[in-house]
Specification:
Number of domains: 2
Number of strands: 13
Radius of gyration: 23 Å
Helix content: 40-55%
Structural class: alpha/beta
Shape: elongated
Strand order of the largest sheet: 3-2-1-4-5-6-7
Strand content: 5-15%
CATH topology of the largest domain: Rossmann fold
CATH architecture of the largest domain: 3-Layer(aba) Sandwich
Distance between the termini: 15 Å
CATH class of the largest domain: Alpha Beta
CATH superfamily of the largest domain: Glycogen Phosphorylase B
């Protein structure tokens, strides 16, 4: 079976959980030897792992015919793409896009991020998807998150193949209900055109059914998982002070993630003990507000803001922690608690998170209940038996949650969609 997959980010260049989930899912699916995945992203960097899939950089797909020399082309795209593919794609141009601003290869430029002109990039990505869908051979289309839904729809219209979309989050999660009508329209259009909708949690599935008015029969829950830790991560020796505990928040500092509840709970904990430090790793539009709130509560001497972390830094931070906290207001899934539990870090999550549906060996609180959150932080740091139980059992539980199992479930959905299409 051949899958044409549209995504927006892919490790090691990631800006959030979407890239991590895309990698884990495709790696897990690749264990099925008869499954071929072609993964399209706006802008590859050349250091992506292509051992189990093939990446097409949408910034290297021509939409305007240019006479490009092989050696020049190899120097530009050779690190991540076979130059011959450029010529093959060029043979499938389908419209006159001379009016668009293309580069010397006849390609559109992409930032590979989430720029101010994001909606323009989403539209451009869908235009390029038309060329890819005309040239590639595939049995099914799989689009990750709202950014790639227009591309998936275009590919479906061009190829006549079925479309599955993967809802990693909706704008109801990102905006705390203050939904952007343009984003909502793109999301709903993607869902309306999809032959099946996969959601990362039952929480998200209910949002899709009730807020986007989708037929429950075409909406499935497919929970995320975690990738086993490589040896270099397992070998990290954490730096810890014996008389001090560290409680960590790691994620975007946005209203969706509930950082203010973490700060308020920390303030309550520090009224009871002083031997705990708090780490708020990440960045976002609430960073300055959180720094001010910490200062107002008089706890700045016990708080650290190390900024955005990725790759090995994340695990160094987690391994140095005694407690991990994710107090999200609305979390479609939330992979970071699973990563913390992989590192044997006792974990506290909000009941308003999708991963709460599959995790038991952690503490769950309502995001708004700062007293319950503070009690949980304090208890894990103070009672060795509780710490040890969550330390040991959490790891055992999360080690049984694999992307390979998720890949098998996705494959079954593909087969059913193709059969009924």
């Amino acid at each position: 079976m051949k899958v044409l997959m549209f995504g927006w980010e892919f490790p090691p260049h990631i800006l959030g959980g979407l890239g991590t989930a895309s990698y884990g899912l495709t790696k897990g699916m690749s264990k099925q030897r008869d499954l071929e995945i072609t993964f399209c992203i706006p802008k590859p960097w050349g250091d992506e792992d292509q051992s189990f899939l093939r990446i097409i950089g949408m910034n290297s797909v021509p939409i305007v015919w240019r006479d490009v020399n092989w050696d020049f082309l190899k120097s530009r795209v050779g690190s991540y793409m076979d130059p011959q593919l450029y010529y093959d794609l060029r043979d499938h141009l389908y419209a006159d896009f001379e009016y668009m601003h293309t580069n010397d290869m006849g390609c559109l430029e992409f930032s590979g991020r989430y720029p101010d002109n994001l909606h323009e990039e989403i539209n451009n990505y869908s235009i390029v998807a038309g060329v890819v869908a005309r040239q590639q051979e595939f049995d099914i289309i799989h689009s990750h998150d709202w950014l790639t839904y227009p591309a998936g729809i275009h590919a479906k219209q061009v190829s006549g193949k079925p479309l599955v979309i993967h809802v990693h989050a909706t704008d109801f999660d990102r905006s705390r209900g203050n939904v952007n009508p343009t984003v909502y329209a793109i999301e709903k259009n993607g869902m309306d055109h999809a032959d099946h909708i996969m959601c990362v949690s039952e929480l998200t599935r209910q949002t899709v059914i009730n807020k986007y008015y989708q037929d429950p029969r075409k909406v499935s829950t497919v929970h995320n998982a975690v990738t086993p830790l490589p040896q270099e991560i397992l070998d990290i020796i954490p730096e810890k002070k014996p008389n001090e505990k560290v409680v960590t928040f790691l994620g975007r500092l946005t209203m969706q993630k509930g950082p203010e509840y973490f700060v308020e709970a920390a303030s309550l904990v520090l009224q009871r003990t002083k031997n705990i430090r708090f780490c708020m790793a990440g960045n976002g539009d609430m960073m300055e507000k959180m720094i001010r709130l910490v200062a107002e509560r008089g706890i700045a001497d016990r708080f650290h803001f190390p900024g955005f972390m990725k790759g090995k830094q994340v695990y160094e931070c987690l391994k140095a922690s005694d407690v991990y906290v994710m107090p999200s207001v609305s979390e479609p899934f939330g992979i970071s608690p699973l990563e913390a539990m992989q590192c044997s870090v006792p974990t506290i999550i909000s009941k308003q998170s999708g991963c709460a549906e599959i995790l038991d060996k952690c503490i769950k609180v309502d995001y708004w209940d700062i007293h319950a959150l503070a009690d949980a932080m304090y208890s894990i740091c103070t009672y060795p038996a509780m710490y040890q139980y969550l330390h040991d059992e959490g790891k055992v539980e999360v080690d049984g949650i694999t992307w390979e199992d998720v890949g098998v479930k996705v494959r079954r959905i593909y087969e059913e969609v193709i059969r009924n299409f």
